[in-house]
Every structure is written in C-alpha cells, then in structure tokens.
Amino acid sequence: xxxxxxxxxxxxxxxxxxxxxxxxxxxxxxxxxxxxxxxxxxxxxxxxxxxxxxxxxxxxxxxxxxxxxxxxxxxxxxxxxxxxxxxxxxxxxxxxxxxxxxxxxxxxxxxxxxxxxxxxxxxxxxxxxxxxxxxxxxxxxxxxxxxxxxxxxxxxxxxxxxxxxxxxxxxxxxxxxxxxxxxxxxxxxxxxxxxxxxxxxxxxxxxxxxxxxxxxxxxxxxxxxxxxxxxxxxxxxxxxxxxxxxxxxxxxxxxxxxxxxxxxxxxxxxxxxxxxxxxxxxxxxxxxxxxxxxxxxxxxxxxxxxxxxxxxxxxxxxxxxxxxxxxxxxxxxxxxxxxxxxxxxxxxxxxxxxxxxxxxxxxxxxxxxxxxxxxxxxxxxxxxxxxxxxxxxxxxxxxxxxxxxxxxxxxxxxxxxxxxxxxxxxxxxxxxxxxxxxxxxxxxxxxxxx
Amino acid sequence: xxxxxxxxxxxxxxxxxxxxxxxxxxxxxxxxxxxxxxxxxxxxxxxxxxxxxxxxxxxxxxxxxxxxxxxxxxxxxxxxxxxxxxxxxxxxxx
Lengths: 450, 94
Prior knowledge:
Structural class of chain A: alpha/beta
CATH architecture of chain B: 2-Layer Sandwich
Oligomer: heterodimer
CATH superfamily of the largest domain in chain A: FAD/NAD(P)-binding domain
Helix content of chain A: 40-55%
Number of strands of chain B: 6
Number of domains of chain A: 3
C-alpha cells in the first residue's frame, strides 16, 4: 500500500472525518479514511444527541432510512438546577419537533459511527481500521502523507486531521501545543439498560420519542460542568463532566461524581432497576475560539474536536464536526481542480466555515466559560440559594405571604456570595459595556431595516 | 453503587505488550509532585502511587483512552500516546 498515492487521506472516522470522506469520495477523489479503533466508533464517546440538520445537509432524510441508527426523536428538552435534595427545573416540549421539524435524536455513538462510516465506503472511500497514525510526512515543507504506528507510509495530496480531542496530527503539523487543563473538560458516562415501556412511563414519553435533561448545581461540587441524562430506545445515557483544571484543583475522582449523581434523590428514581451496560470517559475540548489552532497549512486541514470545534453551552459538537468535515472535503475538491494544495489556497476552508454557524458561534461564545469561572458564586452559592427560595415559595407554612416574601428577599440579599457578586458586577466598566452594547444593538437593528 | 473496578471489568480491551503511557522523569513524582492528581482524577485508576516502591505504577491495560493524563500532570510528566493500531479499549456503546 506504500506506492499508492491518494488525493486525500482523512485521519479519524468520527463525524468530522467521515463527513469529509463522503464529500471527497462522492466527487470522485481517491479517498482513504483511517481509523485507529478496531471499528469506527470503538474509541469514541458522546452523550449523545445528534442534530438532524447538519447530517441531512450531507445524507438527506437519513431518519427515513430503514437501518438509521437513531434511538429516539427528541421532543422535549429540560434543564434542572439541583441542590442536595431538591430540583428547580424548566424545559420545553413541542409537537413541531414531532411533525416536520425533527431537531435532534438520541443516538448510541458507536452504532452511529459504524453506520456513518459505511456511507463513506458506499460513496467510494477506502476505510482502514486498526491503523494509528503517529506522524506526518513532509516534502519540501509541504505535508504529503502520514506514517502509521507500524511505520507504513501513506501518501496523499492533502491530509485532513479529524483525529479527535487528543489530536496527535495537529501537534505534529505544528499547529498546536498540548492543551492546557483549562481548555478541556473530562466527562464520564454510563449507559444503563432499561425496558422501553419503563422509559416511556418514567419520562412521560410517546413511543420512540425521547427527552434530554441537563443538570447543574450541587452535583458538580463547585466545579464548572454539568450532568446529563438522555433517553435511548432501551437504555439511558447518564454522565457528568467538569473542566480538567477544576478536577485538578478539587481532586474529586470523576467516577465518584458520577455515582453521587446516580444516587441523587431526584435522579435515583429515573434509573432505578436499570442495569449498567458500559462505563466510558472522554475529553471535551472547551477552549473554544481562543484555543482553536490555525485550521490549515500546506497540504493539511484540521477539523472537529481536533480543532476545538465545540460549543459546550449548547452541547453542540458533532454537528460542528460534520459541517467542518463537509467544508474541508469541499475545499479539497476545489484544491484538486486547481492542483493547488498550498496553505493559501486551503484557506478557503476557513472562509467557508465563516459563512456557516461554526466560526460565528465559536467566536460569540469565546468568553463565556471565563466569565462564569470568574464568578464562582454562580457555581457554589446560587444553585442552593435558588432551590431554597423555590422551596420557601411553594411551602405553605402558615406565615403571611408578605412576611414570607420579605424573608426570601432578605435571605437572598444578605447572602455573602450574592453580595459579593452584585458588588463585583456594579462597576463603571460594566455600565460602559452595557451602554456600548445597547448602542451597537440599536445600530445593528437600524441597519437591518427594522 | 458500582466500583470503578466493576465498571472497567465490563469493557473490552485488547492489550499491547508495551505501554502507551510513560512517566519520563519518575523523580519528579517523589520530589516535586505532592498532590499527584493523576492518582485521583484518572477515570480508570490507571495511576497508582505505590509507597513501598516510591513510584507511580501505571496500569496501562485499564486505560480507557480519554487522554486526560496529558493535561492532568502539573509537571507535564506523563507521556500519553494512543495505543498502536487496533489495541486498547473498544467501546460498544460509546
């Protein structure tokens, strides 16, 4: 296999890599998709929620295919704030998500990746599994192939690195150093078997329909992160993740955090009687826009988790990967037409991503985690305080409502954390910022012709 | 409640004879690293401080390949690379 030269080698058969492979192979490019696992998905972990739009952009109405790997159509999304013994919650359910606006599905990630990689093969891409790429090959400074851990060399005009959050290739290409511990989150997860009927009963769901529950508050013990529970056909996915830098600081073992979540009095009932099928752990790149590497160099593109393409506040990531994979594939097709694989030409990839939601969303969320981290009260004071407030509000204890209300307000404003938070927010800088954003917004509105 | 050991016991591994994880300078673990976050945070308990040997013993066979070890060590003293092709954990659900 050493003599053959491919138009394009894609490393990693996840959502980014497979999307790129399908795009390239359909255009008739000789495409090689390399996967280090024994099968696609073997090394991959996700919640997992699949957003329909981005996959439909590549495959069309995949949900109508007979072997479609979807678990449940998500018709309801909930958020919960948990204190030690209570939950304050909100959510949204819509019939429109049932009828013609399929927003997202729960999936079992390994089953999905296997199915998706078959689509790449059907489109004409070659898939080699069990191949770990350990280095890049360069000729006159341009990347022109990969070297495997078994020392095989494979040549190509372009290499697309979609090798995930632990990307070796982006490092070998000199685009990134090691991530810092505040640029990644560590999540642990368990898949728990539960009969269909029980899932539908417990979560008040129609047949084949599912819910998502994101959980914040006391369960992360002051660390920045959240727990989740997603309903699959005959199983539940439950997990929790926090920033690695926060795990470092607290020294809390992630599996303890998961067991505590499972034992929480509100959560316990949902998973009661279930049987554990699998435990897994994975890193989530959460550095966002500021941590993104340059996305291209001579003969080389990088996409998906390897390029920090995740929006954790909206639990989006695999959709970014698919859109990026497709854009990378289209860029390689254009490069092939011109016979030009220089960094300058491949910058088309970045231009394409600017025109999608990928770069705008990453840019707009670039300061979010920092903002939360600089206000630790949001994580260690407010959740309990809000739950206590809700408790008082709903509890009928014989006090006149006016006394109760003033007691609630007093407790909130006498809380040290809240006072500190208010004090730190009330400054001239924030006032100016608000004014600036107000004017900017007004101008934008005007320019839109509103 | 299930222990990590029980959780790991349910996974499928194909073990290489060589470790994909190294600690380049074991002295750092003795002299400089007090907290040893790797022993607490690794979700598969791969890193174990053995007091009698005064060193971190690496159970690489249990590694579930999250890669957190790369950033966990405050002294960048863990070299973690993906296992060779086809080796390591194979998730069934992921």
